[in-house]
Amino acid sequence: MKNFSIREWSVKDFAVVRKILLETWLDTYTFIPEEDIRFHLEKFYSIEKLQQLSIDPNTSCFIVELDKKPVGWMKLYDNEDQKRFYISSLYVMPAFQGFGIGKKFLEEAKTIARKLKYDRVWLGVMKDNFKALNWYERNNFHFVEEEPFQMGKTTVIHLIGYKLI
């Protein structure tokens, strides 16, 4: 296994985050038209939106690097209103899936959640994203809620679940 490490992101990572998101979404969300995927990227992950995320005190983001090359991104969100700690994004580029990077991201999220005195981490996954849904279930996530999720003009079902830590 090559060496990979997790680090907090910086302003210098904005372009690579957009690349990671677009590449993973196009590969994974085959049930959503490409124009809706690109619309969502521009609406919610423009450079300006990433700048806003970078200064949000309840959000933290991380890059995973494999041999110093960014290959994954994770966004965590401390939702104080709901009293929930969310992994709101966890993406590993398709060519680097299966190397344990996702599990390393989960461990990082659990460590931060524990420091904040949470007993579980929450996340959402599209119901039609069978590969990710199965992976989360194998990693002891329990899905207890459903809600619609809008990506461009496409609406999909988002399953919301948690993992005890």
In whole angstroms, how far apart are the ends? 27 Å
Strand and helix order: EHHHEEEHEHEE
Mean pLDDT, to the nearest integer, reads 96
Strand order of the largest sheet: 1-2-3-4-5-7-6
* Rg result: 15 Å
Largest sheet: 7 strands, mixed
General form: globular
The parts where pLDDT drops under 50 for at least 5 residues are none
In percent, how much strand structure appears in the residues?
35-45%
| Total beta strand runs | 7
Number of helices: 5
Share in helix: 25-40%
**Helix/sheet category:** alpha+beta
Please supply descriptive tags for the structure shown above.
globular; 165 residues; seven-stranded mixed beta sheet
Overall description:
This protein has 165 residues and is α+β, with helices and mostly antiparallel strands. It contains five helices and seven strands. A seven-stranded mixed beta sheet has the order 1-2-3-4-5-7-6, with helices on both faces. Helix 1 runs antiparallel to helix 2. The longest helix has 15 residues. It is globular and about 40 Å long. The two termini are 27 Å apart. The mean pLDDT is 96.
Secondary structure layout plus pairing:
Elements: E1 4-8, H1 14-28, H2 34-44, H3 47-55, E2 59-66, E3 69-79, E4 84-92, H4 101-115, E5 120-126, H5 130-138, E6 142-151, E7 154-164
Parallel strand pairs: 4-5
Antiparallel strand pairs: 1-2, 2-3, 3-4, 5-7, 6-7
Helix pairs in contact: 1-2
